[in-house]
Amino acid sequence: MRFGRGVAGVCALVSVLGVASRDPADAATPTKYVTGWIPSWGITAGTAALATNAGIISGVSPFAYSAIGPATFAGGADTLIDQIEARVPAGIAVIPSITDGTGKGVLAGILADTGTRQQHIDAIVSLVQTKGYDGIDLDYEGFAFTDGSASWAGTRPNWVAFVTELGTRFDQIGKTLSVTIPPVWANGTRGYTVYDPRGIINSIDQLRLMVYDWSVGVAGPIAPMSWVNDVISTTRMLVETDANMAKVQIGVPTYGRSWVTARTGTCPANAAVSTVSVLQRNADALAASKGATAVRDASGEMRFTYQQTFTGTLTTAIPVPVYAPPASSTGVISPADPNALAPALRLSPPGSIVTCVVTRTIYYPDEFAVAQRAQAAITAGTAGIAIWALGYENDRLWATLRSIAY
Question: Per the confidence metrics, is the pTM higher than 0.90?
Answer without folding.
Answer: no
